[in-house]
Amino acid sequence: MSSKKPVKKVVLAYSGGLDTSVILKWLQDAYDAEVVTFTADLGQGEELDPAREKAEAAGVSEIFIEDLREEFVRDYVYPMVRANAVYEGLYLLGTSIARPLIAKRLVEIAHATGADAVAHGATGKGNDQVRFELGVYALDPDLRVIAPWREWDLNSRTKLIGYAEEHGIHVAKDKRGEAPFSVDANLWHTSSEGKLLEDPAEEADEIVYQRTQRPEDAPDQPEYVTIGFKAGDAVSLNGIEMSPATLLTKLNEMGRVHGIGRLDLVENRFVGMKSRGIYETPGGTILMSAHRGIEQITLDRGAAHLKDELMPRYAKLLYEGFWFSPEREMLQAAIDHSQKHVTGDVRVKLYKGSVNVVGRASEHSLYSLEHVTFEEDVVYDQTDAEGFIRLNALRLQLLAHRKRRLGQND
After folding, report:
1. With DSSP H G I counted as helix, E B as strand and the rest as coil, what are the percentages for the chain, rounded to 5?
2. Distance separating alpha carbons of residues 1 and 370, to the nearest angstrom
3. Active site residue: 15, 19, 105, 338, which one?
4. Quick one: which of 321, 363, 325, 324 has its CA closest to 342?
5. Is the per-residue pLDDT at 139 higher than 80?
6. Are 243 and 291 found together in one domain?
7. Active-site entry in 21, 105, 128, 144
8. Contact 55, 17 (CB under 8 A)
């Protein structure tokens, strides 16, 4: 244990699983501290009552179990969708976007309960330790953060189970062997990593996929859905207004049926190593495609292209845990400003693992049929294009003349 100032009270991000149950007891023993547990419902689809029962059995008197699904989608997922944020061209940042909210609540609960530290169960090899801790330090630089996996000597499954049994912590039968892979889930996605998935040359077994059925087994008939947007945020499905979490839940079910949103990715972790993960983001894949669709007719070319230039930087900030940084907030302000007219309806077609935009309509549309028609029109003088081309070609012509003058061929 660290020789820093003693800790009196710790708020633990607690799932109720084996790892965090062991961490709870370890904190009580190693730090001789009171532990407060915080369990967040972010739409992971797990029963949370057992977490309360286990915390009570461990002698915890202050237990926080909170349904944060609406806040999660409204204040974290939707701002990310406005940015069209994708890490390394493919990853929709499902794990990354959940961590800032958990960090925020850890800090708020610490303040409410008088705790002087928070703790998490992330390992020393992954990105989550960075995301949790950067979030906490950004919101309260004086709070102590305890990361047991970086301190204790329980460095194997056997030692972990042995510690649990020694201290009367229930160990499920399926926990006594090595889990085939680890899973992180929330309303936006499911992430599976490790063990069975560590060889990137091997195709993932179908048992890994938990939120989507095989595209080959999806219905033979496509499904169409119309998503309504207001200022960049999805607000309705097929004309029915819904809350953010309700809407995403509905899209997840549609995506599940049609096998949409599967991704097998080898990504570059912030801590330096490459990692192979299997991601399922059914509703998110549909929503991101639809958002791109409404932007196609409502965003000016300059704004759209600038957004695409900013997006990789924004996505990288999210991935690396800098949600509460001034640069992310600056980018968010620019992105949100661009969404003022991103309002209208997008019709998408869902079919055997694919989602395609097939229709877009908006009162804010910049699309002008008069200008693009192949038929005769009175608004566009095609002879104007000659001067436009000559002006844009001028520098290229001057470069070509110089090459010829100097006898250069490249």
Report:
1. 45, 20, 35
2. 72
3. 19
4. 363
5. yes
6. yes
7. 128
8. no
78: helix, coil or strand? helix
Q: Is 103 found in the same domain as 234?
A: no
Look up residue 265 and give its DSSP letter. Answer: E
Letter for the amino acid at 40?
A: A
Instruction: Check whether residue 211 and residue 350 sit in a common domain.
Output: yes
- Both ends of the chain: CA-CA distance in Å? 64
The whole-chain average pLDDT of the chain stands at 94
Q: What are phi and psi of 268, to 5 degrees?
A: -95, 105
Place of tokens 């000659």: 386
CA distance 273 to 182: 18
Pick the catalytic residue from 82, 99, 211, 328.
Answer: 99
Active-site residue, selected from the candidate residues 41, 140, 182, 292: 182
Residues 6+ apart with CB under 8 A from 121: 13, 15, 19, 20, 23, 148, 149
Confidence of residue 1 (pLDDT cuts 50, 70, 90): very low
What is the length of the chain?
A: 410
128 catalytic, yes or no?
Answer: yes
The boundaries of the domain holding residue 278 are: 183-299+341-361
Q: Of 121, 148, 178, which one is at a domain's C-terminal end?
A: 178
What are 350's strand-pairing partners? 223, 355
Q: Which residue has the tokens 């070609």?
A: 393
Domain assignment present for residue 314? The answer is: no
The answer to whether 142 is a known catalytic residue is: no
